[in-house]
Amino acid sequence: MLKLGGSVVTDKERPETLDGPALERSAAAVASALAEGALEDGLVIVHGGGSFGHHHASEHGVTTTEGTDEIGAVTDIHGAMETLNRFVLSRLHEQDVPAVPVHPFSTAYRDEAGTLHLPTGQIDAMLEAGFVPVLYGDIVATAESGATIISGDELVTHLARALGADRVGLCSTVPGVLDEDGAVVDRITSFEDVDAILGESEATDVTGGMAGKVRTLLELEAPASIFGLESIDSFLAGDAVGTSIE
Ligand SMILES: Nc1ncnc2c1ncn2[C@@H]1O[C@H](COP(=O)(O)OP(=O)(O)OP(=O)(O)O)[C@@H](O)[C@H]1O
Ligand SMILES: C=C(C)CCOP(=O)(O)O
């Protein structure tokens, strides 16, 4: 599983603005890894919302817990994420990566307890066919709340469990989780280890930023890491990179 953070693929400070060079760098790294046979068991990509999803979600006051039943909010948020997904797919196709879209708004929902339901049989079939499924943080119908945001990080955790992922990597704009001196923390085994150093995202973010990431990944059985774009080739090659969350 590879998550491309929204802060990587977009300029999170400017609404609906891609970070073209970072997106191309990410696509090239995936293409190289596929060509070198480093991903024989398959690859699932999830990308974040960046300045597409977070911008519109913030404008409409929608978060992972604050829902909406306004069709304008749903179409603005999902529409922006579909647009970003098309840009991500096109960059992957330019590198001959057989990427295919899986749209969370149409395939997932939350129940009354807020539990995410997302079938993965179609993803298994896509992987068997040699495709690279690409999902993304989105808005999903939510029992008794209209629709709420699903973060890419939550999707990664759900999919890693359902698909039995060997490894999970979250690529962001920082080289890992940083301590108070700005050094990369090698390993995190409990949230209390780093609670004090986890701040907010620098830009608009409605899904919990780095603290949300660490909390989500700690729930995983599979080995997970948070790393910067400069380490994406090493992660895809199977090397230890950035901060390991265990
Ligand atoms: N201790 C920390 N170490 C590293 N980054 C931190 C820390 N505390 C807060 N941050 C912030 O968290 C940000 C990364 O979280 P963010 O959610 O923005 O990433 P992302 O996954 O790329 O975005 P998105 O949620 O849109 O996919 C960093 O850019 C940094 O500003
Ligand atoms: C805000 C939206 C729609 C997506 C949030 O996903 P994330 O950027 O992975 O947290």
Automatic annotation (TrEMBL):
Source domain of life: Archaea
Domain Aspartate/glutamate/uridylate kinase: residue ranges: 2-219
Statement: the UniProt record of this protein carries the keyword Nucleus: no
Key word Membrane present in the record? no
EC number(s) recorded for this UniProt protein? 2.7.4.26
Q: Which residues form a coiled coil?
A: none
Q: Where does ATP bind?
A: K3, L4, G5, G6, S7, G209, K213
| Region of interest (Disordered), residue spans | 1-21
Cited InterPro entries: AceGlu_kinase-like_sf (IPR036393), Asp/Glu/Uridylate_kinase (IPR001048), Fosfomycin_R_FomA-type (IPR024192)
Show the GO cellular component annotation of the record.
cytosol
Q: Name one GO molecular function term.
A: kinase activity
User: Which amino acid positions bind substrate, per UniProt?
Assistant: G49, G50, H54, G152
Key words, A-Z:
ATP-binding, Isoprene biosynthesis, Kinase, Nucleotide-binding, Transferase
Q: Where is this site: Transition state stabilizer?
A: K12
Return any one Pfam family short name: AA_kinase
Which reaction is this enzyme known to catalyze? isopentenyl phosphate + ATP = isopentenyl diphosphate + ADP
| Gene3D superfamilies according to UniProt | Acetylglutamate kinase-like
Q: What class of enzyme is it?
A: transferase
Single GO biological process annotation from the record: terpenoid biosynthetic process
Protein task: Catalyzes the phosphorylation of isopentenyl phosphate (IP) to isopentenyl diphosphate (IPP). Functions in an alternate mevalonate (MVA) pathway leading to IPP, a key precursor for the biosynthesis of isoprenoid compounds such as archaeal membrane lipids.
Outline the subunit composition.
Homodimer.
* Family to which the UniProt record says this protein belongs: Belongs to the isopentenyl phosphate kinase family.
Query: What is the designated name of this protein?
Result: Isopentenyl phosphate kinase
- What species was this sequence derived from? Halostagnicola larsenii XH-48
